[in-house]
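Reference record
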Amino acid sequence: MSAKNASNIRERITAPAEMLAPAIVELLRRIPDTWQTYRPDDLSETQSQALFLLVAAGMVERRERMRLRMLNHPLVVEATFTATGEYGGVEALTALAAQTWEDWQDAFRRWKEGPTPTAPPFHCERLEPSEWRLTDQGVIARKDVRAGKKDAAVDFVLKRGFFDGRPRMMPDGGISQRRPVRGKGALERMEKRRGEPASTVEIANWGKGAEAFSAAFAKILETGQGQRTRSLDAPAPDDGVQEPSGIWSRPMPLTEMGVRIFKDATKWRSVRSVYGDRLRRTRSRKFWQIRLDGLSEDLQDAFAKR
């Protein structure tokens, strides 16, 4: 994953693991597998961070509603979106930014050229109700928690232990590696209307929402994607984040993970010249595999990112 797509999880988490672990377990027991309303303000700071991690891990999906305005502009936008995974929120807000591009692009460009381009020009207000539900992977994690096997679920969410992100050789020759869960996001509803231009940022401003939307809008400005307004259900551009397939709590075969599989190893001549003794055919003879055991961690990371 490139630097520009690096995860922001570490920046958002301040609670220690010993406080997050029981909060993660409690939320897995509490959140249903069908949509249910909840009040974010009723959660403690530790619970809020645990919920953020569960969403990033693809175990919980959130549905949020917000009202969005730009300073000194009369347009008011109300939107509803869903998100799960590390990229779901970005995907949903990118769709919203594309839908409002024609309305705000000129004002946004003027703001970027102004004296305070790093301060978000948007006022974002969270609207009631907020909703949450477990994903299919969350349901599996809850079953493990209820069966007294909570450690695997917690370690996956916290990216520690077996799920710390390092590739590991399994007894069957496959490689298991905890990769970022890309997830998904969707803009379910949007309504535009005209109001009085907002000249100041209200105290009730939802700062994280405003910052996230500003980042999505800036990305459209940089890439020129605003020239092609996407529909509400159109997929967001690929961000380079890969999502593992299969059940989260089980080691994933090399063929599912997509880690160091080559249909034709001759395309990687430089790799073969150095690691030729580590290349071998799969049983089907259709793929080449590279063995990572015995390599330094730096080389393993380099291989996993190729």
Observations:
- The first helix runs from residue 9 to 12.
- The first strand starts at residue 36 and ends at 38.
